[in-house]
Amino acid sequence: MRVPFLLVVLAASLFYSYIAFAELAFLSSAGRLGPGFFPRIIGVALVAFSCFCLFADWKLAREREAASPHWPTVLLIVVASGLLVLTLNLLGGLLAMAAFLLLCLSVLNRGHTVQNVAVSLAFPVAVFLLFDVLLNASVPEGLLPLPF
To answer: What distances in angstroms separate CA 92 from CA 26, 33, 61, 98, 128, one per listed residue?
Structure first.
């Protein structure tokens, strides 16, 4: 949101500077500083500061992207999501979701093994009950159907 705002300020600054340079005289008829002196200084300063802020914002955004240490985690979650899609019909919805959640939570929530296992078992069961019992929608059963 900051970059569009700065672009609007830059456009307004350029328009203001154009008016100051095109319409207002720099010197009066007596040879003194005229009505265009101060607006020209303000217009040039506005354009310069707008360009500086845009450049600083662009440079900060590049530094944040380059310094992000989370890319391996994101890649692992993407691979796990792909494996979930591939194994959904093979293992079934309940087991595939449980394995996916256990893998993701073991990466994202390290050191909380009991909590990760509990969430990995409770959430797929809740989703299974919601879809299969309440909504009467089918959940993939997999090659080995569950006894319930």
So the answer is: 79, 82, 42, 10, 11
Question: Please, are residues 140 and 88 in contact by the beta-carbon 8 Å criterion?
Answer: yes
| Bridge partners for 27 per DSSP | 33
- DSSP E strand boundaries for 22-145: none
Contacts 24+ apart (CB under 8 A), 116-123: 123/97
- Supply the DSSP symbol for 112: -
Written as tens digits, the pLDDT of the chain (148 aa) is 678 888 888 899 999 999 888 888 888 888 887 888 888 999 999 999 999 999 998 888 888 777 667 778 888 888 898 888 888 888 888 889 999 999 999 989 888 999 999 999 999 999 888 888 888 888 888 777 766 6
Structure tokens at 109: 């929530």
| Predicted model pTM | 0.53
For the chain, list the strands marked E by DSSP.
Answer: none
Phi-psi sector, 32: left (phi>0), alpha (psi -120 to 50), beta: beta
